[in-house]
Amino acid sequence: MNEIANTPASSVPLIEVRNLVKHFGPVVALNGVSMKVHRGEVMCLLGDNGAGKSTLIKTLSGVHKPTSGDFLVDGKPVAFATPRDALDAGIATVYQDLAMVPLTSIARNFFMGREPMRRFGPFKFLDLDFAERVAREEMHKIGIDVRDPGQAVGTLSGGERQCVAIARAVYFGAKVLILDEPTSALGVAQTSMVLKYVNQVRARGLGVIFITHNVRHAYAVGNSFTVLNRGKTLGTYAKSEIGIEELQNLMAGDKELQLLSDELGGMV
Amino acid sequence: MAKSEAVPVAERPLDERLKKQSVLRSFLSRPELGAVAGTVLVFLFFAMTARGTGMFAADGVLNWITVTAQLTIIATGAALLMVGGEFDLSVGSMIGFAGMMIAIPTVYFGWPIAASVVFAFCGALLIGFLNGVVVVRTRLPSFIVTLASLYILRGMTIALSIFFANRTIVSGVKNFAGDSVVVPLFAGKAFPGFFVWLADAGIIGTLPNGQPSVQGIPAVVIWALVIALIGHVVLTRTRFGNWIFGAGGDANAARNVGVPVARVKIILFMITAFCATVYAACQVMEFGSAAADRGLLKEFEAIIAAVIGGCLLTGGYGSVVGAFFGALIFGVVQMGILFTGAPNDWFQVFLGLMLLTAVLFNSYIRRRATGER
Questions:
Q1: Which residues form the domain of B340?
Q2: Among A2, A72, B55, B209, who pairs with B50 as Cys (CB 3.0-4.6 Å)?
Q3: Is B42 part of any domain?
Q4: Residues on chain B touching A3 (C-beta within 8 angstroms)
Q5: Among candidates A95, A154, A199 on the partner chain, residue whose Cβ is nearest the Cβ of B369
Q6: What is the maximum alpha-carbon separation in chain A?
Q7: What's the total number of domains in chain B?
């Protein structure tokens, strides 16, 4: 399973941030975050609520501009003005509930924002045949059988929707995928479907940043783990360096969990 | 090993819980369905009750087709905007105000009427733009923002009319129009020769003076057809149309994949203002005047037509073809009640019931479309 991850694909990371700081007025959301993602690697970003995960994703995907710190893509410093810039640089973000338009068809969703056009005299029209064919093929590749690509996305399950959103990003040439809690609202079967697909995408040589607060999900697909706490990275660990228990403790903050454990009489 | 992760679809057992969708079922999930069914019912009803009243003679047909056409023009704009997730309650006031923007410069400033019409369209587009910008920037519900525009524009229409004409109607536009091409453009009759031929052949009736009972297809009907057709093609077959569905269905999701949601919404507000101005121009050219109460309550009629046509109040779903059928139901019932001699008050009762039925039906269709239970 780890054949690709074990061979260091390249020494230059796809994305690297060093000492990233982001202030919102008096609020310090990020206070020195450092991490990197390589090709063919699933880097899990773990952190409790309020750790700064969302701010970090939004900074990486071009929604926010960092207050200070270095942001390198393929070893070159970048400054994104809009999410579109990040997309053009190959960084695609799949948000938890905000990836798809539920009432609109799968094919239209798949090409939303990048519609295929066909010229007809002086006018350009949507190439819906092409959109439906590609959507069906891409869904087929990930093992979702869509009878009618014209059916609304709302008819798909949560896991399928996440997979379509990921397939879309891959189809449009993403080099790095940022997945924002893709499994947090899903059941067991759905989660395993998404995790399998994440692993497939990694095997194709993409870099994946997998954001979650579920250590089990992270440990199932991750190659390395970065723990975020109160706007700071506590460190990055390869899978061989850290166990699931340690990771859990690190994420929740050792002391607090210990206290809670004592309080509940060792039930946790 | 990584390669074997995806189970080939062919080898997967078909999910026995998934029923095959028939052609009928997929037809059932189209937004226009309710309006088409309603149109058939309404026609059947009046075919039985209004037979022999002249409702289906040439001049009777012209009667309800004209009402349908007027409403189609504004319902197209309303439907596009509703699919885009917003409302415009200022459509009716915009009709009155655009009429003044045509009539006042023509009558009181001595402008050529063509210049006044161009001025009115530019002014309307600017007002639509402002509506859109305020909605997008403030993130207030468009319901409230355009309710304010409804009063502001209506107030300005009355005030300007009083200021210039000293009454609530600015008349005499035709005296200043001369033989400008603008008049037939908005109030002409197309294919008069064809209708003379029809009358001579005895297919349609003639008036006592020997003219055919219908002298041609009114310009407003042609405007309606052109606007509805363009609206339909834009919504279903263009990139902008796809963005309308995205902006109305889930603005955040659309924004995340690079759809310029704010721009789409502002343009949609400009389109509704444009449609209202076409409506106003047709009326001013037809009657030769602009009145301060023109277009009163038309915003609701446009929204009703769009809702009967399958547009969801929450956005992201609907069709222009449906809105056209909604307008047709409206025109047929309004005129049909007149023809059958039933008290006109019943029209409003019918309209309310129709609206309620349509909304219930739409929410059922939406649940079907998204698989919610």
A1: 55-365
A2: B55
A3: no
A4: 1-2
A5: A154
A6: 76
A7: 1
Angle, helix B91-108 to helix B58-83, in steps of 10 degrees: 110
Which chain B residue has its CA at the smallest distance from A169's CA? B257
Q: Which residues contact A44 (CB under 8 A, 6 or more apart)?
A: A210, A211, A212, A218, A219, A221, A222, A224, A225, A226
A1 touches B: beta carbon within 8 Å: yes
Contacts of B83 in chain A (CB under 8 A): none
Low-confidence ranges of chain A (pLDDT < 70): 1-10, 98, 253-261, 265-268
Q: Which residue of A has its CA nearest to B371?
A: A155
Q: In what order do the strands lie in the sheet with A91-94?
A: A91-94, A176-180, A207-212, A41-47, A224-229, A232-238
A-chain residues near B241 (CB < 8 A):
126
The rounded distance, in Å, linking the Cα atoms of B246 and A103 is 9
CA angle A245, A247, A250 (to 5 degrees): 110
Specify the pLDDT at position A10.
53
Q: Please report the pLDDT score of residue B207 as a whole number.
A: 83
Q: The tokens of B166 are what? A: 């000293």
Please give the angle made by the CA atoms of B246, B247 and B251, to the nearest 5 degrees.
100
In a domain, B48, yes or no: no
Instruction: Compute, in degrees rounded to 10, the torsion defined by CA atoms B169, B170, B172, B173.
Output: -130
- Nearest-CB residue to A102 (from B12, B237, B250): B250
Record the tokens describing residue A162, joined without a space: 């996440």
Element (H, E) at A199: helix A188-203
Mean pLDDT by 10 residues, chain B (373 residues): 41 47 61 85 88 86 94 97 96 97 95 96 98 96 96 97 94 87 90 87 82 89 97 96 95 88 97 98 94 94 93 92 94 88 82 84 74 55
Residues of A in contact with B242 (CB under 8 A): 108, 111-112, 115, 126
Q: Which residues on neighbouring strands pair with residue A126, listed in sequence order?
A: A117
Question: Which pLDDT tens digit goes with each residue over B63-92?
Answer: 999 999 999 999 999 999 999 999 999 999
Residue with tokens 């219930």: B360
Residue B34 lies in a domain: no
Q: What is the DSSP letter of A152?
A: B
Q: What pLDDT is stored for residue B26 in this prediction?
A: 60
Instruction: Give chain A's domains with CATH numbers.
Output: 27-101+160-263 (3.40.50.300), 104-151 (no CATH)
Selection from A65, A161, A68, A57 nearest residue A109 by Cα: A161
Q: What is the pLDDT of residues A122-135, one digit of tens each?
A: 889 999 999 999 99
Q: Which residues of B touch A200 (CB under 8 A)?
A: 2, 5-6
d(CA B359, CA B353): 10
Chain centroid offset of residue B109 CA: 32
Query: The complex's ipTM?
Result: 0.82
User: Among B229, B236, B242, which would you mutate to test the A interface (most chain A Cβ atoms within 10 Å of its Cβ)?
Assistant: B242
Task: Confirm whether B18 is domain-assigned.
Answer: no
Neighbours of B210 (CB within 10 A): 9
- Please work out, in degrees rounded to the nearest 5, the angle formed at the alpha carbon of residue B327 by the alpha carbons of B348 and B132: 100
Flag whether residue A189 sits within 8 Å of chain B, measured between CB atoms.
no
